Amino acid sequence: MNTTMYESFDASTITDDMLQEAATLFSSNYGVWGPEASKYIPFAKAGRPVRMTKDRLRTQCLPRGADCMYAKVTVDGHLAGNVFACRWTYNEQTVCWITQLVVDRNYRQRGLAMGLLSQVKRNTDKVYGIASSHPAACLAAGKALGRGLSSISLNFIKDHAAEIMASSPIDYISGAKLHGSLFNPDVTDNTISSVDTGFHVDHTEPDEALQCVRQEGDWLLGDLVDGCEF
To answer: Which of 8, 70, 124, 200 has the fewest CB atoms below 10 angstroms from its CB?
Structure first.
């Protein structure tokens, strides 16, 4: 019988060893660079794994002075997944943004992502956000943090997403640009609600997953183009 254990940590208690462990998990399980990545990111090579370092992880997910936290899940002592979250205030409401969510591919489809997201959830949170190229992450966030992805308000996203992201202490979020017909009716690439983060990861696996999701029910966010995330 497998022993599953969840643990959560405030930013002040996150050690370099934890970040190194998290960076290794990311590098081994996140995905590979897309075919156009080298045009935008000099060190990125198509088909090669997207790598993470503990220092980059701290900079991207734990900005100094921000209200951040980390949760991890182990299965029989093995790190099976983790999540980073960051909070800030928008219009006197608390925003909780999932800055990173990774589950070891050998432990997927066991509900671990939802369990991790539940670890970072607080009753005072009023708005939740995530930017991910994988529909499974979006679905897990919708279920764990709300009432499911089908219940999200596209009107709220249209009216508030730009200001919420601009107020983020996370650089890659505050500097990202919204993309899709929800924000610009002239967009004709079948995207609805996505964000251009300049993260040119390969979309082969996410696209395959998206096809399965669409067969099972409604998908509100549209397609995904290179360099963007849902």
So the answer is: 124
